[in-house]
Write a structure and sequence with these properties.
Helix content: 25-40%
CATH architecture of the largest domain: Alpha-Beta Barrel
Bound molecules: iron/sulfur cluster
Radius of gyration: 21 Å
CATH topology of the largest domain: TIM Barrel
Order of helices and strands: EHHHEEEEEEHEHEHEHEHHEHEHEH
Distance between the termini: 36 Å
CATH superfamily of the largest domain: Aldolase class I
Oligomer: single chain
Number of domains: 2
Number of strands: 14
Length: 387
């Protein structure tokens, strides 16, 4: 059976090339063709010997995820819904800004953590994505955007693992994907520009610090265990004291000297001045250098939660800032295509509906999406997630 070369980091690809009787440096050449140039046809890889290209044709492929829908927002945000089979779909969102291009990437179909404010959490867990399914989102987006913009320069400068799923609950697939994002022969992203967002899987935070330290964002959402138990059920397993200690340990390895705490603002639940003061006490007492990112909640009916008023968010931000903690309020992007945080893959929560839609669209879309060169149509999508 042919292996998908998107499934390998450079070390894995080297082992694969050696298994074909090829020299190590062939793996580097191949890696560059696939990731830097977006090639999916071995015939295009002109500096590889024909004998190697023939072997690759027999044993390997470069297979993208089928794109079900693509939707471009009026603010330039682009959301893609990818078919990962068996009625599941995951989303990636590209967010262009003046000084950067950020891709929000999914790590799982669904999520087992079940945060109350997250539409992905409400849909339940389907399965872990494989390394190639994580990387295929970046591979497709980068090369699609280059073609779309008519450039050979890198378009995506930042990756945030903040799409569907808890990345640290899919650790084995995540690490080769991160290593490929960082590899100079692939995407060459700086460790500071690749962010893993976690709801607080403490043992895996420690492993990430050892294996592949990148920027870390932690979904906090509450200053006390009782409230966090309710909003982020994983807190019952890894309560705040353990989480804060893990943050301190992580910083010994991290490429940045702070942790970003994500905090979804929920009216009447976690948005009072007392909560803000308790947060200040929490980070001060635990000694975690940090920044806060306040996230406007994107309401969905099943949550039973509502959005904090902008004035409340601003007052909350002012308290944190006055307490000496850099605090930002996340800009809402892609509102008109439901690409705002907490909305990722909300459509997928109704698997039947997604299944119906997939079957209708598959015929139209499949021929467009087997390679980045192919997909150029704008199609409506729905919803991103929300660590
Ligand atoms: S916020 Fe993140 S960890 Fe929580 S349910 Fe959503 S995707 Fe899972």
């Amino acid at each position: 059976m042919a292996v998908n070369l998107l499934d390998f980091d450079l070390e894995g690809l080297t082992a694969f090339c050696e298994s074909l009787g090829e020299k190590k440096f062939r793996a580097t050449q191949l890696f560059r063709w696939v990731h830097q140039k977006g090639a999916s046809s071995f015939d295009d890889m002109s500096d590889l010997a024909k004998s190697l290209r023939d072997k690759l044709k027999d044993h390997a492929e470069v297979l993208a995820l089928p794109v079900l829908t693509q939707h471009i927002s009026s603010d330039g945000t682009i959301k893609w819904l990818f078919d990962v089979g068996a009625g599941d779909a995951v989303e990636a969102v590209f967010i262009p800004e003046a000084d950067r291009g950020t891709l929000c990437v999914s790590s799982q179909a669904g999520c087992a953590v079940g945060c109350r404010f997250c539409s992905t959490g409400h849909q339940g867990f389907s399965r872990n994505l494989k390394t190639w399914e994580i990387l295929a989102q970046l591979w497709f987006a980068e090369h699609f955007l280059r073609k779309h913009l008519g450039t050979t320069d890198r378009v995506i400068s930042n990756v945030v693992m903040m799409g569907m799923g808890e990345p640290l609950q899919n650790y084995a697939a995540l690490i080769p994907a991160l290593k490929t994002m960082l590899d100079d022969h692939a995407y060459g992203l700086s460790r500071r520009r690749v962010t893993v967002s976690t709801s607080g899987v403490v043992p895996m935070m420690d492993r990430l610090g050892q294996d592949c330290p990148v920027a870390l964002a932690v979904s906090l959402h509450a200053p006390q265990d009782a409230l966090r138990d309710n909003l982020v059920p994983l807190n019952k397993k890894y309560p705040l004291a353990e989480l804060m200690s893990a943050c301190v340990r992580y910083l010994a390895h991290a490429p940045r000297d702070f942790i970003t705490f994500e905090y979804c603002m929920l009216a009447g639940v976690n948005d009072s001045s007392e909560h803000a003061l308790a947060l200040l006490a929490l980070v001060r007492d635990s000694g975690v250098p940090c920044k806060f990112n306040l996230i406007p909640f994107n309401p969905f009916p099943a949550s039973g939660l509502t959005q904090s008023a902008p004035s409340v968010v601003q007052a909350f931000s002012n308290i944190l800032t006055s307490g000496g903690v850099v605090t930002t309020v996340r800009k809402t992007r892609g509102d008109d295509i439901d690409a705002a945080c907490g909305q990722l893959a909300g459509d997928v929560k109704d698997r039947t509906r997604v299944g119906d839609r997939m079957s209708k669209q598959r015929t139209v879309m499949l021929h467009l999406v087997r390679s980045p060169e192919a997909a150029t149509h704008d199609k409506p999508i729905h919803e991103p997630s929300s660590h």
